[in-house]
Automatic annotation (TrEMBL):
Matches recorded under SUPFAM superfamilies: Arabinanase/levansucrase/invertase (SSF75005)
Record has Transferase as a keyword: yes
Name of this chain's protein: Glycoside hydrolase family 130 protein
GO molecular function, one term: glycosyltransferase activity
Alphabetical UniProt keywords: Glycosyltransferase, Hydrolase, Transferase
Domain of life: Bacteria
UniProt family annotation: Belongs to the glycosyl hydrolase 130 family.
Database matches in InterPro entries: Glyco_hydro_beta-prop_sf, Mannoside_phosphorylase
Keyword Transferase: yes
Length: 323
């Protein structure tokens, strides 16, 4: 999301040719930063007042998945609430939730909307809103089970809320394409459209098994810039990397460009080793008016890392390295 507050930043290291580069002091959030956490990863941040706020996936030491609010002055050092978010009823009566994970946060009009993977007879997309990251109001689930990676656009498109998602199964889904859906009211969702599909293995293998939306898309003159994760199945398991696509501004189910090479893939110790090895999983980004962007991602399902880039360079890269 665009930030008037100073976002975390570090220049591209000398000699580095990559379009996206990691923060030298990663990970920024360790696994044990709440008293009960086993891991803190796949989390979402936004500018808030004179700093930042966020919703963090904290799995506890019983390995129960839940989401916690957090605050930061600089976007790097975070105070995460020790207790999970307690929801109040929003646009419906309280809906049962077995677990919550992989949150995203979008500011639309007057409030922050949180979407996450909500355990309701299996995973589907939960929705809540908050004004202050203290009180949260839970709304209707967006979809039937099973679904993951619900990500809202930061503004209405053609007068409707618009959400990306990835229909899935109840397990470690061995398939997955990105769809989008519209809603007039954040309660009823429809007009489902296919957006981005997996690639043939021989074209771009890192995204040949499944793809899922990352953070809230960024509006650029060349289209909506969407960071996404792509997955390959190797002989030792799934490997999650990050790519980017440009979607048509008025009709975002139309993919204009998508990267053939990845922008970031597991390569450091904290991305290759952890509870789930080889995972880079973007869930949010912050950018400023100069076009600097910082991407927040879960690493190895254990910790949170950040990576930097410049939006104009990333847009050029996506256009010039598209399938
Ligand atoms: C997905 C989700 C993510 C996780 C990823 C890799 O299915 O559970 O939260 O990061 O698998 O384990």
């Amino acid at each position: 999301m665009v930030s008037k507050n100073v976002i975390p930043w570090e220049e591209r290291p000398e000699g580095c040719k990559d379009v996206v580069w990691r923060y030298s002091k990663n990970p920024i959030i360790g696994r044990y930063e709440t008293p009960t956490s086993n891991s803190i990863f796949n989390s979402a941040v936004v500018p808030y007042k004179d700093g930042f706020a966020g919703v963090f996936r904290c799995d506890n030491k019983a390995v129960q998945m839940n989401i916690h609010a957090g605050f930061s002055k600089d976007g790097i050092n975070w105070e995460i609430e020790p207790e999970p978010i307690t929801m109040q009823a929003g646009n419906t009566e309280m809906i049962h939730s077995d677990y919550k994970y992989d949150p995203r946060v979008a500011f639309i009009e007057d409030r922050y909307w949180v979407t996450w993977c909500n355990g309701y007879h299996g995973p589907t997309i939960g929705i809540a809103y908050t004004f202050d990251f203290k009180e949260f109001f839970q709304c209707e689930n967006a979809f039937l089970p099973f679904n993951r990676n619900g990500v809202l656009f930061p503004e209405k498109i053609n007068g409707k809320y618009c959400m990306l998602s990835r229909p899935s199964d109840n397990g470690h889904t061995p398939f997955g394409d990105i769809y989008l859906s519209y809603s007039p009211d954040m309660k009823f969702w429809g007009e489902h459209r296919s957006v981005l599909k997996v690639t043939p293995f021989e074209d771009s293998a890192w995204q040949c098994l499944k793809v899922g939306a990352g953070g809230v898309p960024i509006k650029t003159n060349d289209g909506w810039l969407m960071f996404y994760h792509g997955v390959i199945k190797t002989c030792s398991g799934y490997r999650y990397s990050m790519g980017a696509a440009l979607l048509d501004l008025e009709q975002p189910d139309k993919v204009l460009y998508r990267t053939q090479p990845y922008l970031l893939a597991p390569a450091t110790d904290y991305e290759m080793n952890g509870d789930v090895p080889n995972v880079v999983f973007p869930c949010a980004s912050l950018h400023d008016e100069e076009g600097k962007v910082v991407i927040y991602y879960g690493a190895a399902d254990t910790v949170v890392g950040i990576a930097f880039g410049r939006i104009p360079e990333i847009v050029e890269f996506v256009k010039n390295n598209s399938i």
